[in-house]
UniProtKB/TrEMBL annotation:
SUPFAM superfamilies: Periplasmic binding protein-like II, Winged helix' DNA-binding domain. Residues 9-62 form the HTH lysR-type domain. The keyword Transcription applies. This is DNA-binding transcriptional regulator, LysR family. Belongs to the LysR transcriptional regulatory family. InterPro entries: LysR-type_TF_proteobact-type, LysR_HTH_N, LysR_subst-bd, WH-like_DNA-bd_sf, WH_DNA-bd_sf. GO terms for molecular function: DNA-binding transcription factor activity; sequence-specific DNA binding. The keyword Phosphoprotein does not apply. PANTHER family: HTH-TYPE TRANSCRIPTIONAL REGULATOR, TRANSCRIPTIONAL REGULATORY PROTEIN. PROSITE patterns: HTH_LYSR. Keywords: DNA-binding, Transcription, Transcription regulation.
């Protein structure tokens, strides 16, 4: 049987197997019925056949589901033992998938991967660059790091750090046109700030902040980037209004399923991230002034 990318999917399966319905499993897991359906479909795709079948008003296990149930129950029974080992200082063994913005990976997580390896040499880490806010809910990741506070029921969050995102322009550049993020990011505080300031949509759209900063230098247009990134581009200067830099303050949030709060994967990841981001009151880089 193939390895699943998310323990949350197996927890959902166990809940459906116990309750016999998606709705009851959703209530137990603190997620939506549609998320339960996505988790089960992902499991079906991994195995190559259905693990549940409808019988009347309930869902019952197929033969493949019975096999999976035995495996999942064994894994769940071992979870307490694994957690005890972790609490006793034993190294974490397993795989964790972390989903976050590309600049968080390149600027903060990748340089700290040596610390993870030193603490957990028998483990594996998948760092996936994406800003999809539903990565955890869909079972695509164990943990997500987000620059917006999640409000989804059943999703736990902990603040890791702060991040200022401001409007910048190259020295002598344009303050009438700008470079921003793709339309999918409309509604973010920094995008709204720029739309209000410039009174128009961006001339160019790029999907990473570093790409935006490089394009701003190449074109002379203004842009929105985190202050951490702007520090690496000396040609960029803050755009001000009434002698105040136009920027917004964002928090970086550690996001995971509430039902997994005692999971060794979550514990090991949180311990590592505390070494990467020592204080929730400081900037991501520890250098920028937080306003």
């Amino acid at each position: 049987m193939r390895r699943f990318r998310s323990w949350g999917q197996l927890q959902t399966f166990l809940s459906v197997a116990e309750a016999g319905s998606y709705r009851a499993a959703a209530r137990k897991q603190g997620i939506t019925s549609s998320t339960v359906a996505r988790h089960i479909e992902a499991i079906n795709e991994e195995i190559g056949q259905p693990v549940l079948m409808p019988v009347g008003n309930k869902w019952e296990l197929t033969d493949a589901g019975q096999d999976l149930l035995r495996i999942a129950e064994t894994a769940q029974a071992n979870l307490g033992f694994m957690l005890k080992n972790l609490e006793d200082g034993s190294e974490f063994r397993g795989t964790v998938t972390i989903n976050t913005s590309s600049f968080i990976i390149s600027d903060h997580l990748a340089p700290a991967i040596g610390q993870w390896y030193a603490d957990n040499p028998q483990s594996a880490v998948n760092l996936e660059a994406s800003d999809r806010t539903t990565a955890v809910e869909r079972g695509e990741a164990d943990v997500a790091l987000r620059l917006s506070r999640p409000e989804t029921p059943g999703i736990a969050r902990a603040k890791l750090a702060n991040c200022n995102v401001g409007i910048y322009r190259p020295h002598g550049g344009s303050d009438s046109d700008w470079i921003g993020l793709p339309p999918a990011y409309r509604g973010l505080a920094e995008v709204t700030l720029a739309e209000t300031h410039f009174g128009r949509d961006p001339r160019f759209r790029l999907d990473t902040f570093r790409a935006i900063a490089k394009a701003a230098e190449a074109t002379g247009l203004s842009c929105i980037v985190p202050t951490c990134i702007a520090r690496d581009f000396p040609a960029l200067e803050p755009v001000e209004k009434d002698n105040q830099h136009l920027l917004v303050r964002r928090g970086l949030w550690f996001v995971f399923y509430e039902t997994r709060k005692n999971d060794p994967v979550i514990a090991a990841t949180r311990a590592w991230l505390k070494t990467v981001f020592p204080s929730p009151n400081r900037c991501l880089c520890g250098k920028c002034e937080i306003v």
